[in-house]
Amino acid sequence: MGGRARGAAPVVLLLALLWAPLAAGAAVVGAVERSQLRDQVVEMFDHAYGSYMKHAYPADELMPLSCRGRVRGMEPSRGDIDDALGKFSLTLIDTLDTLVVLNKLDEFEDAVRKVVLDVRLDNDVVVSVFETNIRVLGGLLGGHIMADMLKAQGVRLQWYTDELLHLALDLGYRLLPAFNTTSGLPYPRVNLRYGVLGPNSRTGTELDTCTACAGTMILEFAALSRLTQETVFEDTARRALDVLWEKRQKGNNLVGTVINIHSGDWVRRDSGVGAGIDSYYEYLMKAYILLGDDTYLERFNAHYVAIMKYISQPPLLLNVHMHNPTVSIRSWMDSLLAFFPGLQVLRGDLKPAIETHEMLYQVTKQHKFLPEAFTSDFAVYWAQHPLRPEFAESTYFLYQATRDPYYLQVGQSIVESLNEYARVACGFAAVQDVRTGRHEDRMDSFFLAEMFKYLYLLFTEKRDLPLDIDDYIFTTEAHLLPLSLSTARPPCPRNMTMFHMGHGEEQIFTRSCPSAQTLFPNNPTFTRNIRDAHKQLLQQGAQRLALFSGLEFPLHDARMEPLEILRGMGLTLLPLGDRSVQLTGFHHKQDASPLGLFSLKFITELVDPPAGEQQGISPLAVQVISPPFLGRMTLTAGPAQFGLDLTKHEHGVKGSLVLSDPFQACGTIANQAEVRGKMVLAQRGDCMFAAKARNLQKAGASGAIFIDDAEGSCSEDKVLFQMVGDGSTSDIVIPLVFLFQKEGQVLLDALTQHRHVDVLLGAKPMFPDNTDQL
């Protein structure tokens, strides 16, 4: 992205002008090789897009392993992920402006015709406000802007009369009811036909939303307002940003991750730059660039100072508590923060951008892809990789800023990994586990909207593009909005930031673009020196203790299943007096000379262990949402190391309760008709949790709640419990939680008394004082 909005400080010209002196003295990747990489990206795009159009269209997304379209309601629910699907040909709309960037103008005109003729928005379906805004509204706006540009050239689309803009306006009005809250923060979901609070809407009961969900509306809504002269959209999005700014922790300018949409109280107070917050920061900076309003820059700068003071531990970016930011509250990072080096490039803060990007590259090289989450010592924390584009995005921005051919090599490695490990017969498949390479039947629309756009731009000279890329800004979904929108409407005079940075807090790049001499005075190798300091990070990471092909055993519960696994191997754990344990066992029976006893000391807390979060275990919750409870009863639950990861589903997974028969779910489920599509209660014991989960999943359960079989056990007296698998659990995809006996009895009693009981499984937030918690 290049160029800048009128009235804005000259930040974005950095990309076009800053690094010419350095590029001249650097070794340049050969033009032929770069051209070959560009052509390879085009061929990969053709394979992905062609597979969608052949096997999936008009469905929202392609299932690349099944070679068919994903239609919501016809496939097993994936929880929040499916909220992006609205029966509006999502992938086609999300890909529109990518077709133009890749110079596929015939395909673009055909795609516009298909959208105009086939797409309808009056669908009785509940969708994510955030995802629909960035993917569909942004896609329609980007497609309209490209169509309008090509029409003005007098060759193509002479028939086009703003049909995509009319669709965008229709969609904008369908999203507006989500903002009908006392605070102005939007509901997380809306029914495209019935809105939020109508009797047929099937939504409107949510109490909170993520910071990014509320704060990532301004670019698309403001563009819609300025293209249609309907000011309500920009005003509405700005109001939500005003609320988030007002609710920041004023002592340090940090924000939390989840906020109550009615009261404005923070529900989750962890603060970082990854999932749940990421694009809020991005949109403050880009709103300033696109709209020319200093308010957004002032807010971004205030947040950025706080991020660099508390969250940034170069090259790491670790979450902190917004009210006590001097201590990191978790030891892992999620892959969405990979966008942040690119945002730092836009601000002109190159050194930390280079450092964090290099760390991410080293993690990527170790695992072939960037895992969904990884620890501070760079081990896999969540093993999935859904073909996210954020690392490619930052690679592109760093290359544009530095012209360092090193970043072309990074891009080449991305291309090679995608072709070798993600390419399948019908497109590209997400990776379910980067350690094994197992695929997932999923190709999200953002893969076409973003990944190929950034890779193509990385390997293409500006003169070969069908548009001047410096005249546009990228949205968080990489849709192109023209910087000329800054002249379409003056900044609103009441859009003021009640914060003024003192001169002592302002940094050298707060309001002006840095120069090459300031950053790298007469030293074109400085970028390499920064990277080289971080190339050994993975070797320096702490070694993790693993047993038997990587099975990791959290040993904080003397009754937990890892002990059963070890006993099945002929091994026994004996607690010792020095708070360690002894592992005893023998060689396999066929070994003529038994090893005899051997011992390993695990430095692990068997007594008085630290709280769950300190062990890396995030507590979950079961909230009873049906009458007469209506969300006032919340039960503390333990997570599983397998199944659907509820910590990645901001709004949880809902279901109606039913008992498993047999109750311990260790055999064939007898009441499959009752279990199908329900949240099933089952008891611990007699077999592994993984075996229970497989039996229930096979019977059609939408999720499972396992209740402890130890009489009187309670979360108040016990350490947070985490269920582990049996070594191969990638086939288990339903959500799973564990309740101690006292909490489980609450659900059993509720089911006895009321018969119909609905629950919500999710990450455990800090519930309001009027919520009963156990």
UniProtKB/TrEMBL annotation:
Names of the cofactor(s): Ca(2+)
Signal peptide start-end: 1-25
Functional pathway: Protein modification; protein glycosylation
One cellular component term from this protein's GO annotations in UniProt: endoplasmic reticulum quality control compartment
Active site (catalytic residues): 131 (proton donor), 278, 372 (proton donor), 390
Any one Gene Ontology BP term: carbohydrate metabolic process
Name of the protein this chain belongs to: alpha-1,2-Mannosidase
